[in-house]
Structures are given as structure tokens and as C-alpha cells.
Model the fold of this input.
Amino acid sequence: MSKKTTYWWNKWTGGAIVILLLVLTPIITILVKLFGSPGEHWSHIVSNLLPSYFANSMILLLGVGLFTFIIGVSMAWLVSIYEFPGRKYFEWLLILPLAFPSYMMSYSYVGILEYTGPLQAFLRNNFDIHIKGPIIDIMNMPGAIFILSISLFPYVYVICRASFMRQSSELQEAALLLGSSRMRVFRKIALPMARPAVAGGIALVGMEVLNDYGTVKYFGVDTFTSGIFRAWFSFGDINTAIHLSAILTLIVLLLIWLENFQRGSKGWTSGNSTSRPAIRIKPNNKSTRFIYSGLCLLVLLISFIFPLSQLFYWVSLTWRNVVDAEFGILIFRSFSLAIGSAIAIALLSIFLLYTVRISPLKWTKHIAKTASLGYAIPGAVIAVGIMIPMIEMDRLLIWLTSNQGGMIISGTLAILVLAYIVRFMAVGYNAIDAGFQKTGASVNEVARSLGSSPLRTLRKIDLPLIRNSIAAAILLAFVDILKELPLTLILRPFNYHTLATKAFDMATNEMIAESANASLVVVLTGVIPIILLNNVISRKRSES
Amino acid sequence: MAILNLKNISKKYRSADKYAVDKVSFSLEKGEILALVGESGSGKTTLLRLIAGLEHPNEGEIELNGNLIVSGKKSLPTNKRKTGMVFQDYALFPHLTIFENVAFGLKGLKKKETEQRVFETLELTGLEEDVKKYPHQLSGGQQQRVALARALAPRPELLLMDEPFSNLDTILRDQVREEVRQIIKTMGITAILVTHDTKDAFSTADKIAVMLKGKLLQIDTPDTLYNEPNSDYVAELFGKSNNLEAIVEPGGFNTPFGFVSERADCPFATDSDNCKVKLFFRAEETDFCNAEEPHLCGMVEQCTYLGDHMQLKVRCNRCNTCSSKDLYPNSNLEGASILLKSSVQSWKPGDTVRFRLKNFKVKETEK
Done:
């Protein structure tokens, strides 16, 4: 009658494996090249710079990890347990710092604290206090920890809050009824249960810290990432860049392993999803309520409103000189590059996840999961890992065609798009996975049992049902790509600028006030999905 | 003619250390309704998914309507098997109307034919007026009918239903069960129904298959399954039953509750007197009687009110009127207790119960 096929092999599985190989190219390259001979500068770097790269990266990781933990967890606990004025707004306002790339945040803070900055002007004019230089010098390690902490704490906050909200209220109520104080419930029940989530959030923060180039470069803190840049651009030593990348990759993999290890088999679910959320406590004392509001406001001011105001201030001074047709083209280019890459990410994520959905094999899940590993790998490493095979392919092409036209593949936008896909696949993947999870597998299975081919089922059933998730995936990936700096710096075609690289370029060339124009566009664009997605969430909540 | 034939089907999930389905073989005649019964984790849903092609077995072959659809690494994709499926949560397409839902599986038909087929099927399930509504506008019972209609519209060779009644409330459930059986029988479709509820199985199925830990324990008609369970598990699944210890004696069996005469319709080779056996009888297979008749005797230890009947836990109490003391001097049988059903509701703990076994089976105890 009909044709039987091998049950696990079809064009979907094949396609997924091809995508996986493509996405893993940079990591494979780095690992293969690691066995080659290190570059000429390697011994110099090992003896003179490597110890400080290592020490600085570790201090940064520990410092930022500690502070994001303190700020993130305490804010999450406040807004999920207590009722106080403005709580409803702080709940999502505290996510806003995510829209502010940390390197742009560092430019703002340098501006705020410098001699001509608003703070000193205020002190001078009102209190006749004169200080030479900036009030506090933040262009050093503590400053970098401060900037990265206030811009990255929302990772911990968001995940931790979600975990607190998911915990069944019965559990906490049971502890209260047994005579525990709120503080004890927090220490003994809520926090231990949220531990996997908190660790996951801090791991994300750690990956962002290792990825950062703009802040550490500006503040003069030498880390692995800035070392890769130095090897690549200053020394022009590819092999040394690879070796540094490999060490950094190992550190990241260690971080991932630690995170998985601490989670272990303790997959304790925090109550079932149908449990009602805990009733918030309204502190009896009015001043306590205002202290809570004040705390949230303080964090919000420092992590978002102050630096944003500085941007607005600078823009008001400089926009006449900066905003012109060329700036318009810059915005257009940046946006279309980001949107194009984001759509590619969404399409590939759909392909991968749909393969998992229709495959009777469980291991396809691992293919998809592995393909989204790029979020953990620092942008500079991905850039190096992609650039090298491309340069070699170009050399091969030049040798084959024996022309002297130069590089054909490397230095094109296509490479940049590929790198974005590798780095931000997880963003699209997670959004679309959430959509598929919500839809459930049975509609798809029932459609196929009714004789609908996998492709028709995708078109008629799955895609219409997850279209909101697709939109979210594109939007989130778009914003992340727009903010991306290190990878773009390495892979952009000669003289090609995005908003991010332009802001970086201007800031490092003593045009910090002018750089605010590009920064402001990036930050305000980044705010959009936060507001949009939060609205979607709160609408959903009021409907149910 | 067997329409479905499973040969030695085994499935093991990679993460699990035990087989989800362990060497299951059975066949199903055309037009039969089979209920797969078992507790959660017994492998019944996995078996259903293997037949639907949503999973692939590690071993075994499946034949549907004379075609080998699963064999070795080869498999006919789900969408090419002519199986309809009804899920526990119905899995209606939320973005499509009732009409579009039911018409989804109809391909290669003209518009008119499609319409005709949809209405024909909906009529059968009693839902023809609601075709323009969306699934969320329907009640649970209506959604269930749409799910059934959608699966039946392409006239599948085999209908698979995964816990189809578990989302309905008790009253609706009894009614829907009856209707579903009617509809399937009218269309002459072969069906497999997965359920953990024995009532579902009894009221809808022609044959019942009991699964435990991936193994198929017994597959038989409901009647045979109830009266001749091949294991304690199957017996226990379909109602309260007792396994009363007894010693074979001339003319009957000696139990802690008294002497039970041998029954002509239940022959037992009593070549070995004094050997230990077990008497299997269901809780309702007893008569209560008065002291004059020959009887068994015990004391009510616990009584549970269950609406239409009362369940009694009866312990042997060695009263003076019955003969169990002399005939059954083994003292460690003091703890023996049995369950009885009584339509009389006035029992209290401590009452003396006199009863007779209406029906029982003798099982040899393994040594």
C-alpha cells in the first residue's frame, strides 16, 4: 500500500543536523585550532598578561555575581511578597536596565560623575563644593563591577521573581502556620526552592560579564575578552586570539557545568502551575511601606533613570551636530541588519523545534538544545571562531582562482548575520519553545493522525497557534542584536557601522556626548519589548 | 478477520531503566472495541502511541489491515496510517471552527462532498447546529463529540482514544459512554480505548486488555475477565474480592470462618487431602443466612457506608455456634479477614455475621 520509511530519518532531522553543524562551527574551529601552534605573542602573553586576564575576569565574575545576587533576589522578594505603593509598576520597571547595554551605561556614569557633569555642577552651584576630577573615579575594577551589576541584575531579578511567583502559596502558608516568621520562610523555604533559578540567573550574568568588551575596555580593566581583541587587532596574531578564546570557552563550559551540577537531579518543582499566587502582605506600618517603595525607586534611579537622563542631556547638547541624513542611514542599516538576522533566527528555531515535535526520537531534543548553546559563548570567541574558517576559505578561493581580488567571503555582512544567529539562537529558541509548550503536542499529533503531512500541519495548525511567540522571538532577538558590540566590532565589514559600534567608536574617541545619540536610539528601542511583553503578560493575567 | 495485529511489541524510553511496553502481542477483529486498562505508568498510553505511529518500538511488528506498518527500523509515518485519534484533552484546533476542525482530515474530496461528510458525521454525534462556533464556545461534552466527529470523519480503519471520558463529570460520563459505543458500533469501526476506569471499560468495550508495568496480563471479554481473572491483580482491579485460605478435606474445604462444601460445578481434584488452597470469591458473591442453616460465621470489624450497599470487613471470631474452632484449630489464622457486600445497611462493628458462599473458585497456593 503506502511506502514505509525509516522511522527516524526524514528531511527534518537532516535539516536539523545541518543547522547544528553550522551553529557549532565556531566552537569546533576553536577546539580544533587549539592543537595548532600558538602565535608568536603567546609566550609574551602567558608570562605577562595571562595572570592578570585571569585574575581580573575572576574578580569581575565574583563581584558582579555577588552584587547581582543581592540586588536581584532582594528586589524579587520585595515585589513578590509585599504590597506597597507603586509595587505593580516597579514589578516591570525593574526589568528596564536590561534595555541599557552596560558599555553605554558606563559612558553615562562617567558623564554623571565627571567635573562638568550634573552632580558636580549641582554641588558647586548650591553648596560651593569644589572637587578636582570626578567625584568618584569609577574607571577601574570596582567601577566596572558597579556598572555591570546595575545593568545585569535584572537577569537574576526576573528569574527569581518568576520562581517566587510559581511557588505555591500553600507551602509558604504552611510554614507561617507552623509559626515561622516571614524572614524565616524566606531563608528556609522560598530561597532554597528558588536556588536553581537564582543560580541559573547568576550563570547568565556570568556569561554576560565574560562577553563584555565595551565596559572593561573603557575602564581599562584587562579581561580575557579584551585580551582577544588585543591579540586580534593590536598584534594581528590570530593563533594567540584562538588560544585565549579556547581558555575562555573552557571557563564558560565550566560555568555551565557548575550550574547544571548544582541543579543536579534536584528538579524540585515549585508547586504546580495551577496553585494560586500567594496573597501579598501589606505591612501595617505606613513608613515601612514607603521604605519598600523607596528602595525600589532607588535601584531604579541608579540602574536606569540617572543614566538615561544623562543620555537625554547629552543628546540635547549634541543632536544638531550628529543627527543628519548619515545618522538616519546608520539607524536604517542597524535596524534592517538586526531584523533580518532576527527573522533568520526565528525561522531556524521553528525548524529545529518542529523537528523535535514531530520526531519520535528523544535525542533530537539535544540537537536543538545544543544549537542554542551560543548564548553562553562570548561574542568575541564566536567572532574569532567564525572568521578563521572564512579566511581560510577565502585563501582557498584565491589559490583556486589564482586571482588577487582579495577576500570574498570574510568581511561580508553574511558572516555577521551568521555570527548573530549563532550567538542569539537561544533567544528565539526559548520564545518559540515556550509557544510550542503552551500549545501542547496533542493538536499536532491529532492533525498528523488525520492524515496531514508534517509540513501541512506546521502551516495550518502550529504556526497560527504560535504566531505571538514568533513575534516575541523576532522582537527579542532584534533588540539583543541591536545592542551587540564585541562580535560586531570584529566581524563588521570595513568601515561599516551599526548603532552599537558607532556609540563605542565615538565614546572611545573623546566624543562621549555625541555617542549618546546612538545610545539613546538603542536604549529606547530596547525598552519597547519590555513594555510590550509585560503588557501581554498582565493582560493575560487579568483575563484569567 | 484480524484488522490489527501486534507481535512482541516492546518500547523502552532512553531515560527509563524499565520497559514501558514489554513484549505485548494481541490482535483485534474488525468492528471490535478494545479497552486497554491499567494504572498510570502501566504503558497503556505508550502502546496507543506506538499504534498511532507517534512512537517507534524497540522491537516487534504491527500489522494494520493486512499491511505491515511497523517492522524493524521501518515505519509508516503517522499521517499515512489510517488511524483516527481522540485525546484526553480533545486537542481541538482552537483557531478553527467546528466545521473546519471536523473537515481537517478530509482531503481530496470536493467541497460538496466534504460538507456532506462533515454534517453526516456531526449528525451522528448530535452536534450539527454549532458548526460556526469555535471550540472554546462549547461545553466539555460538546468538545468531546467534536473530537470524536473529527476523528471519525475520514472513516479511519482504526479509532484510538486516550482517556476520552476522564474530563467529563460523573453524570455526563455515563451518558457519553453509552453514546460513544453506539456511534462506533453504528459505523462499524474498530476502536481501542485507553482508560484507568474499569467502568469505562465494562460499559464500552467488547474486549478488555489489562496492563501492568508494561506487560499485558490478560485480554478477554469483560465477562471472562470478571469471573475468571488470571491473576490477583486483575481480580482486584474489577471489584473487591477475597482469597480465603482453606484446607482440603473430604467433601469440602475447611476455612477459618467454617466449613465450605464442595461444589459440583467447581470440580477440584481432592486427591491430596490436607493440602492448602485458596477460595476466590467476590465480595458480592455471598448470601446472608440465619443460624439454622449451615453457614460460615464471623464478626464485623469495620463497616463502610457506600450508598447503595455497605462494605463489611469480617474477621473470624471463633464463636460458639459455628464449628470453626474444632475444625480449624490453627491459631495463626486468627487474623484472617474478608470483605463482604451487604444491601442491608444496619450493620455495626461487633455484630456476628452468618453467611454462605454463592460462588467460588479454588486456587492452588503456590509452594
